[in-house]
Each structure stands twice: as C-alpha cells, then as structure tokens.
Amino acid sequence: MGPRYILPIFTILLAASAGAAGAAPAANAQKEELRQLRGRIDALQQRLAAAEETKSEAVDSLRESERAISETNRVLREFDGQQRALDATLSELQGQSQRAAAEIDGQQAQLARLLYQQYLGVQPDALKLLLNRDDPNRIARELHYLTHLSRARAELIRALRSNLGRLNELERATRQQSAELAAIDAERHAQRKRLEADKRARKAVLVRVSRQIAQQRREISTLKRNENRLATLVEQLSRMLSRARPEALRNERLPDASDDGSPFVQLKGRLSLPVRGELRNRFGSPREDSGLSWKGLFIAAPAGQEVRAIAAGRVVFADWLRGFGNLLIIDHGGGYMSLYGNNESLYKQVGAAALGGESVAAVGNSGGNTDSGLYFEIRHQGKAFDPLAWINLK
Description:
Order of helices and strands: HHHHEEEEEEEEEEE
Distance between the termini: 48 Å
Number of domains: 2
CATH topology of the largest domain: Helix Hairpins
CATH class of the largest domain: Mainly Alpha
Largest sheet: 11 strands, antiparallel
Shape: elongated
Structural class: alpha+beta
C-alpha cells in the first residue's frame, strides 16, 4: 500500500479545474481502495482482539497456575511441620524402643540368673524343706520366702512378655511413621514438579501470543497510517466534488406540541425534524465505512444544540450503545418509535414522558462520530423507513 495511494493533490486539483465529471471516477476509485483498506484493518483488529483474548486467557491460566503453586507451597510448608512432628515422634519411638530393649535385656538376664541358681540348687525347694523334717518355724519362713520368689519370677516373666509386645508395637509404629514420611515427601516433590512444568508451559504460550500481538499491532499501525493518507486524499476529492453538487437539504423547522394527542400514524407529512441543520446522509444511501445502507438521517448540527422530540411519547431507552453513542428512543404508540443517536447528553430517563417539541437531548458526536450532529430514525414494528416521507421541511 503506502506511497502508491498518495496521488499528487496538485494533479487532482488540475483535473478538477477541467470539470467535476473528470474527478468523480478518481474519487470513486480512491474510496473503493479506502473501503478495502479499512476492511483489512477491521479484519486485523478482529484477529488482534482474538489474540488479546487468548493472551488474557493465558494470563488467567498462568494466574491460576501461580495460585496453585502458592497453595501447594503453603501445603508443603504444613507438610514440613507435619514432617518435623513425625520426625520427633519417630525419635521418641526409637528412644522408647531402645529403652524397652534395654529393659528386656535386664529382665532376661535376671530371669536367667534365677533359673541358673535354681538349677544349681542354691535356691531352696519347697518339697525338700517339707521332707527334711527341719524346724517348723524355719520351714515356714523358707516357704514364705519361696512364695515371694515365685511371685517375683512370674511377675518378671509377665513384664518381659509385656515389654516384648510393646517393643513389637513400637517397631510397627516406627515403620508406619517412616512410610508416611516417605509418601509425603514423594507426593510433595511430584506435585511441585507438575506445577512448575505447567507454569513453564503457560509462560511459553504467553510469550508466543504476546509476540503475535506485537506483530499485529505494528501491522495495524502501518495500515492505519496508509488509511490516514488515503482518507486525506478522499477528503480532498470529496470537497472538490461537493462544489459541483447541488446544495444539500437543510432543516429549519422544529417540532412542537400542537399535534399532541393525535395518533402518530395520522402525523405523516406533518412532522418536523428534531434539530436544525444540514442533512448529510439520506435513508437508503450507501455507508462508506461498511458497504451497508443508511437506515436513517444524519443531521449536521453544532454540539450542544437541543434535540427535540418529534411527537409525544414515552422514553423506552436512554443509554450508551455501540455505534450510536448516547441513544434515546421514544415510543409513540401504534408500534412507532423515533431514535435519536450520537448525543452529547440525554435529558430523559427510561419511563419519562416526552411532549412534542420538548428538549430530550443535546447534540454531540458520541459513539465514535467524527462530526457533530444527530443520527435520526423512525421505525414501525422495528423496521426502519425513510423519515423524509413523514417530514415537512418547509
């Protein structure tokens, strides 16, 4: 694109001096190229919007990954605390096991001594005492001693069995605690590894999409510079051609409340346009920016000028709408509605009544319009029709 669109304005103006008819084909050709260029820009902007949405999704996913990593680190911190507690429990169990083993060793040694002494005959035997026919008092004392010795030996055996059971239980608990520690540690490392891999993948997507967006923005910037140069050329051509056109229609009449109370359908041919100004676009004429047709009128007017209701009715919409800026819609009954767009301010809210000729808004260029003025439509059953068929301009 670039320089081949920049036709010398001086050459065009020379052609214009020979007559508007010679400049019209050039203007039409440049307008067509401008339309195609804008189409390319729109397509690129749509792809850019999609890429930015993808980037937004990638950022959201990355944010979720980073939140998950943060949560995992928090859980791992708790795991660390649990691990320290388990380590302390394990140390205590190991200490108890060692003490129990030492106690068992002592008990086993004591029991071995008792059995050995009994085997050697050092310890008295109850049957021998009775058969020896010794002094009864001495025999009683010896028997009483043997009874205590037997009880101590039995208690020692029971304690030894209990300690052996407790030692087995401590060893089982120690193995279980060790297994739990190993499982927690393995799960911690596996989860951290998965999250870090996911984070790296999402960052790679984000970098790739960011590069794509940067490239598309550079391309759009280049195309927009070309568009501005071509638009300047088309504007020059349009100004030149406008000098050969007949004077555009103007409206000088404003609505009033004289017909309030009459059904809207009876007002055909008696209505006035909402503002004074030049009619720049007509119903059904092609729109240069999209290839579609105008469904209403654009009336060029200074910003701040009052916009008046064409007839009595009730406001059913008063808000900003893409492409129409601050938009006001009045329901006149019988399926008829009037639309007032690109306003600077709206004076009525939804549900408010409007009288014919009452000020309902102020002229502006909201919604992305470059020129100040009012976009005006009349619709029946939702279908737009030519407002001029109902308007009296005289």
